[in-house]
Amino acid sequence: MESSDITTSDNDSLDLKEFLKVLSLVKNGKLNVRMPVTQAGINGRICEVLNDIIDMNERLVAEISSAEKTIGKRGNLSKRIELTDAKGEWAEGVKSLNNLITDLTSPTLEIASMINSVANGDLSKQIPLEISGQPLKGEFLRIAKESNQMLSKLRLFSMEVTRVARQVGSEGKLGEQAKIKGVAGVWAELTDSVNQMAGNLTAQVRNVAAVTTAVAKGDLSRKITVEAKGEILELKNTINTMVDQLNSFSSEVTRMALEVGTEGKLGGQAKVPGVAGTWKDLTDSVNRMAGNLTSQVRNIAGVTTALQNGDLSKKITVDVKGEMLELKKTINTMVDQLNSFASEVTRVALEVGTEGKLGGQARVKGVGGVWKDLTDSVNQMGSNLTDQVRNIAGVTTAVAKGDLSRKITVDAKGELLELKNTINTMVDQLNSFSFEVTRVAREVGSEGQLGGQANVPGVGGTWKDLTDSVNQMAGNLTGQVRNIAEVTTAVAKGDLSKKITVDVQGEMLELKITINTMVDQLNSFGSEVTRVAREVGSEGQLGGQANVPGVGGTWKDLTDSVNKMADNLTSQVRNIAEVTTAVAKGDLSRKITVNAKGELLELKDTINTMVDQLRGFASEVTRVAREVGSEGQLGGQANVPGVDGTWKDLTDSVNKMAGNLTAQLRNIADVSIAVANGDLSKKITVDVRG
User: Fold this and answer.
1) Residue 533 pLDDT more than 50?
2) Is 33 helix (H, G, I), strand (E, B) or coil?
């Protein structure tokens, strides 16, 4: 603060020159001067008041300057002048200044708010024409109206541009144009520019779309031809270059895909010479992918082939990532679960299907999801099948045993329900059919009433055809059997002059031919066998052989058998004749030695046993006869162990005869001795005959 060169007098009078100087400086805007306060009294007080006025002005100017910097330079429109100790007009002046600032800044704030809204894309806000109840006037009113008009045009422009942008950019309606009526100047030029941009974009996008659509459809013959500049030109060149590279890349990838995907040639690699950057990376990626896929597919194929062949010991071991890793884990888990599932299902299938143990259930621990559902389904299927099969088995077993009183009652659906209904219907039809066929069979087969016909009313389809077939068969059989019966009856009666003449087919024709051939062969065979039988059996000419020329098969075997039989009989009869002749001549040293089987073997053994028993019997009878007849040893008995039947009876008879003779001779001897001794009281009392 500057000080003046005011001097004071001894009488303390105010230095008016100094006072004027300070006032002049203040008048000229020099507010940093002050009156020196060196006096007391009124003069000193005047200086203090003047200094206070200067200070108030200085602070007011400082506040105004601060407000100017804060509001005008820094843009802080909330700044206000503050003189807290101002009173009266000073306070009113400060208030007026602040009101002026408010009046000046309020429209600006509204304009700023509007501009901020516009900047933020909100075109709905307008500048109010009244602020705090006070209408705008002058320039502020003009600015507000023009700004609001600009906002209206911006809204209209925005709506049209938005519509065009939405239709072109979002809805894909190319060719749309903005239509803004009443605009001129910049707005008209801006609208035209937007429309021109939309038109150019439409043409360019349509051309790009046509090419990219063709590329998307696999047509790489199209290129972008529309005139373009800048980035669109770069896009055009890029897409056209891309099409060229895609042609080359597509050719190689197609070749590799053909080899790998169609021809099954794994390991193929794409070769795209001259490409770089992304295309080279893409080619390398495709080749790497093909290589990885080759390894992975071969490993998966190995496992799935093993699965197909029933080999559940293999798993995927190739190193993979991502979804292929999930697939690897899934397949390996599937293999584990299939192992467990297959084991249990195999066990149940073995029990149910092979061992016939119905009611078996698969137990696969730890499985969930589809495998658990599948296990439950298998078990449910097994349980249902058990009930159904047991019921069907019960009915079919009953049917097989001829019991047609039972039907399937188990609850069934689908094809098993159809099977149930079919079997039950079959049982009903079988009952009716069985009754009629039984009747016809009884009449034809048991009672011998040929010509019977089955009558099954109400049947159709197969059962009617079967009934008709049975009746036709019965009719045909009647004719055929009667004809065969005539021939076989004639053959049975020894009449070989008849043959089967009924018209037959198939096996019956073969039977007809066979029987007729048999009749012919029987004629020839009978003639030869009769001759051999006559020679061997009647004329006693052993060694005869039947000669039936032209026969084969059974008849030849039969002829050979007859001849072999005749030859064997010749050997056996001659051997038996030799032994029996020797026995008849009393020679018990001979036995039958010829090889024999069956009844002839029994006859051989019987005759040989008979010879042994005769030898034993003869020895005992000779002994008893010698003892009784020669040596006089009465009471002897023949002991022939092991004999039975006639030989035992004969032995018993000899022993009885010896016993009777002993008793008789002893009785005669007693009487003879008594007579010799003069005792005539005794008589022979033994029972005798002859």
Assistant:
1) yes
2) strand
Q: Where are the alpha helices (DSSP H) in 69-185?
A: 88-119, 138-165
Top CATH class of 305-475 equals: mainly alpha
pLDDT > 80? residue 598: yes
Q: Please give the backbone phi and psi of residue 135, each rounded to the nearest 5 degrees, phi first.
A: -70, 145
First CA to last CA distance, the chain:
209
| The residue type at 105 | T
- Compute the distance between CA of residue 608 and CA of residue 511 in angstroms, rounded to an integer: 47
Here the tokens at position 676 are 């010799």
Cα separations (Å) of 671 from 592, 659, 666, 679, 688?
Answer: 52, 18, 9, 8, 15
How far apart CA 568 and CA 544 sit, in angstroms, is: 11
Say if residue 473's pLDDT is above 80: no
pLDDT of residue 681: 92
CA distances from 134 to 92, 96, 557 (A): 20, 16, 145
CB 296 within 8 A of CB 266: no
Give the CA angle between residues 514, 520, 525 to the nearest 5°: 110
Backbone angles phi, psi at 519, to 5 degrees: -60, -45
Q: Domains of the chain: which residue ranges? A: 305-475, 504-595, 596-689
At 537 the pLDDT is: 67
Question: Residue 124 and residue 646: Cα distance in Å, rounded?
Answer: 147
- The full length of the chain comes to 690
Statement: residue 190 has pLDDT above 80:
no
* Phi and psi torsions of 32, nearest 5°: -100, 15
Distance in angstroms (rounded) separating the CA atoms of residues 613 and 608: 9
282: closest CA among 246, 244, 240? Answer: 246
Token pair 């009392």 is at which residue? 685
CB neighbourhood size of 531 (10 A): 14
Q: Higher confidence at residue 328 or residue 679?
A: 679
- 131, β-bridge pairs: 134
The overall pTM is greater than 0.85: no
Q: Which of 392, 389, 377 is nearest to 351 (CA)?
A: 389
Neighbours of 500 (CB within 10 A): 20
- Average pLDDT of the chain is 79
Q: Looking at residue 482, what is its pLDDT?
A: 78
The confidence score (pLDDT) of residue 13 equals: 78
How many other C-beta atoms can be found within 10 angstroms of the C-beta atom of residue 250? Answer: 17
- In contact, 597 and 568? CB cutoff 8 Å: no
Burial of 276 (0-12, 13-18, 19+ CB in 10 A): exposed
**Residue range 255-277, pLDDT digits in tens:** 877 777 678 777 778 787 777 77
Q: What is the CA radius of gyration of the chain?
A: 71
pLDDT, residue 647, reads: 67
Secondary structure of 582-637 as H, E, C letters: HHHCCCCCCCCCCCCCHHHHHHHHHHHHHHHHHHHHHHHHHHHHHHHHHCCCCCCC
Closest C-alpha to 423, from 438, 410, 437: 410
Please give the torsion angle defined by the CA atoms of residues 528, 529, 530 and 536, in that order, rounded to the nearest 10 degrees: 110
Per-residue confidence at 115, pLDDT binned at 50, 70, 90?
confident
HSE, CB side, 13 Å, CA atoms: give it for residue 438: 7
130 has which bridge partners? 135
The phi, psi pair for 226, rounded to 5°, reads -65, 145
Which residues is 134 bridged to in the sheet? 131
With a cut of 50, say whether residue 6 has pLDDT above it.
no
Among residues 318, 320, 316, 319, the alpha carbon closest in space to that of 333 is found at 316
pLDDT single digits (tens) 117-149: 777 777 777 778 787 777 877 887 788 787 777
Residue 248 CB contacts under 8 Å (≥ 6 apart), including other chains: 272, 274, 275
Instruction: Tell me the DSSP string of 230-266.
Output: HHHHHHHHHHHHHHHHHHHHHHHHHHHHIIIIIS--T
